[in-house]
UniProtKB/TrEMBL annotation:
UniProt gene name: pepE
Domain of life: Bacteria
Name of the molecule in the record: Dipeptidase PepE
The keyword Protease is assigned to this record: yes
Gene3D superfamilies the UniProt entry points to: 3.40.50.880
Annotated SUPFAM superfamilies: Class I glutamine amidotransferase-like
Keyword annotations of the record: Dipeptidase, Hydrolase, Protease, Serine protease
GO molecular function per UniProt: dipeptidase activity; serine-type peptidase activity
Family: Belongs to the peptidase S51 family.
One Pfam family here: Peptidase_S51
């Protein structure tokens, strides 16, 4: 596999989407020679698909990549088959996942990534759908008939935009408490919280963690104290557990 799962699209000081990850994306583009990328903007709610596609094109122009918005394609499945890779935007995970299912793209993307080693890049909602299910998204289920199973490219749940802390005066649950609630109901699963400016990468069968700001990921298990891992630490076991 060649998979890059970013927590978010931008960090402070960035003017382009995934700017903080350009140094990680460059060698992956060179390795895979992925020059034609189909872009999936289905998660975008407060904006237009065309605008987001243009923003992504601006980011990937430096890699000599052509970005094709899947919403402009008559046959979305064929677009995946003909592309060198897939890029999925952040936005609302519930809308994104349902639209992927409605358009018959789950099997097409899984075949492209798992069988043909095509490049997959996602951030935020685009990262959520790479997991077995979207149950650990931060997004509201703003559509009816919501679908939970997702692409299952990695065998563990991810919580993008992870925040380790509480807000003064806020009486609701913290992010840690919400994740703990998930694990009470799903005790055999694990959740990986990735903060802003970070990325999980699968190259071949090797999983690594990268951070533009030295923030660690946080691993949650049922009835266990959460554990943090710095970018240089080994997280390969997450791929080997077969959750």
């Amino acid at each position: 596999m060649n998979v890059m799962l970013f927590s978010n699209g931008k960090i402070a000081g960035n003017t382009q989407i995934l700017e903080y990850g350009f140094e990680w994306i460059a060698p992956m583009i060179e390795k895979t020679q992925a020059k034609k990328l189909v872009f999936i903007p289905y998660a975008v709610i407060r904006g237009s698909y065309d605008e987001r596609t243009e923003q992504v094109q601006q980011s990937f122009a430096q890699f000599d990549c052509e970005i094709v918005g899947i919403h402009t394609c008559d046959n979305p499945v064929k677009a995946i088959e003909e592309a060198d890779g897939v890029v999925i935007s952040g936005g609302n995970t519930w809308v994104l996942n349902r639209t992927l299912h409605d358009n018959g793209l789950i099997a097409a993307i899984r075949k492209a990534v798992l069988k043909q080693d095509k490049l997959f890049i996602g951030w935020s909602a685009g990262t959520n759908v790479a997991t077995p299910t979207i149950r650990t998204t931060n997004d509201m289920p703003i559509v009816s008939a919501a679908i939970l199973p997702a692409l299952n490219l990695v065998p563990f749940q991810i919580n993008p935009h992870y925040i380790d802390g509480s807000i003064s005066g806020h009486m609701g649950e913290t992010r840690d408490e919400r994740i703990e609630e998930f694990l009470v109901m799903n005790p055999t699963e694990v959740v990986v919280g990735i903060p802003e400016g970070t990325m999980l990468q699968v190259e071949g069968d090797q999983l690594t963690y990268h951070s533009a700001n030295s923030k660690p990921l946080k691993l949650f298990r049922h009835q266990s104290e959460a554990v943090t891992f710095a970018p240089q630490e080994d997280v390969q076991f997450l791929m080997d557990e077969g959750i």
